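[job 0412] stage=complex_fold ligand=flavin-adenine dinucleotide status=START
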Amino acid sequence: MNAKRIVVVGAGPAGMMAAIRASELRQDVTLIEKNPILGKKLLLSGKGRCNLTNACDLDSFLKRFSKNGQFLRDAFKKFFHLDLMRFFEQRGLKLKTERQLRVFPQTNRANSIVEVLKKELYKNKVKIIYRAVMKDIFLQENKIKGLLVADGRIIPADRLILATGGVSYSFTGSTGEGHELARKLGHRIIPLRPGLVPLETRQQYPNLLEGLTLKNIRLKFTLLQISNANRSSSKFVTGFSDGKKEIISPIGELLFTHFGISGPLVLSLSGEIAVWLKENNHVYVEIDLKPALSKEQLRARLLREFKLNSKKTIKNTLKSFLPKRLVDVFLEVAKILPDKKVSQITQKEREGLISLFKAMRLDIIKARPIDEAMITRGGVSLKDINPRTMESRIIKGLYFAGEMIDVDADTGGFNLQAAFSTGYLAGENAALN
Ligand SMILES: Cc1cc2nc3c(=O)[nH]c(=O)nc-3n(C[C@H](O)[C@H](O)[C@H](O)COP(=O)(O)OP(=O)(O)OC[C@H]3O[C@@H](n4cnc5c(N)ncnc54)[C@H](O)[C@@H]3O)c2cc1C
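[job 0412] stage=complex_fold status=DONE, emitting structure tokens
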């Protein structure tokens, strides 16, 4: 029997894994990539260290996806984290599991992951066409026939796997052409939105703290829905809300940036917050800098500290409570002069400090643009894809894999596993069916 001509578009983790699996099954596989290199986004992942998966059990894993995670059950049954880890370890790359069960290569270099994938593609004789941009897809009687590349080349195909990614970090190549072509062929596209995205704040002080990470803090996001009738001239009035919603984070880390806030806690909740940030809504976050202490415990600690250091300035005293870089800003927000002696701090000021420790507030004005999001939410509708095969329910012989489908997850290695697993499933089914 002749080998099937399988063309995979996009050499990210999903496309590379799809090409590897289809070629293992002895098909004639071509991988098309617009960049001159493989895995451009993969090389950036995990701050260049590549958090390739997470070692938690399947149910916990699926809970880290937004509502569509269940769609991935079949893909994960076929090829899950242990399979992925074995894939790399059997090819000589040692892995390690860090806190929160995040898995990384022991080399701490994403490039090691890309190198293993590249070697495997070469070993399996996958034809890789670099610098080739897919422009169109040809059908005959609703079946895949081939595709057109921007330079005019026509590549015949019996099966086509689209793995062109989302639309974030577009300089890595993911610019949404795959979605456009899928739409043209009749697939529904769920609107593309930012996920895992930093947030902009009205207050400017995060700029002064850029790069500072606060560890062991808790965030409380509040949404106030304000109807037009109750809308005052001030955008940030909080007294006339019609509805209120809150999200309280677990304890974790926050990062200040030049425009606002980021870091794992913010990114994890940002998808929901981006939905909240509609016109007429007012969203703010309160940072609990001492989540392990109640107000009473904090008061007792402050009083003890104030008694012991009555001659010290408040600025110096607070250095044992807060990161050094935060102290000046904290006192400015509290409206207390940093050189004021502790003995001169009034009871009202002390109570103000306690409240600020428990709820340092920032108004959120918007999410950063989708291009700065780590992940794209939305994509090819799951209603148009068979979860057991990743084949389109509309066009025979067309498969989807990776971030371009309407599935997204939290940070922690979940998104890359989804890309590898859906790629594997698509590659296998394109080869066998
Ligand atoms: C900064 C950053 C860090 C991240 N870190 C992690 C992490 O540590 N762990 C984790 O789980 N997830 C992480 N992610 C998310 C993860 O990288 C993505 O979810 C994953 O890369 C998606 O894989 P993909 O193969 O679907 O798409 P992509 O990796 O985006 O690959 C798609 C490929 O398709 C190519 N392409 C697109 N259109 C065309 C076309 N028309 N013709 C030819 N080629 C085309 C692109 O050039 C690209 O190479 C991170 C994301 C970012 C931005």
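The CA atoms of residues 62 and 274 lie 22 Å apart.
[job 0412] exit 0
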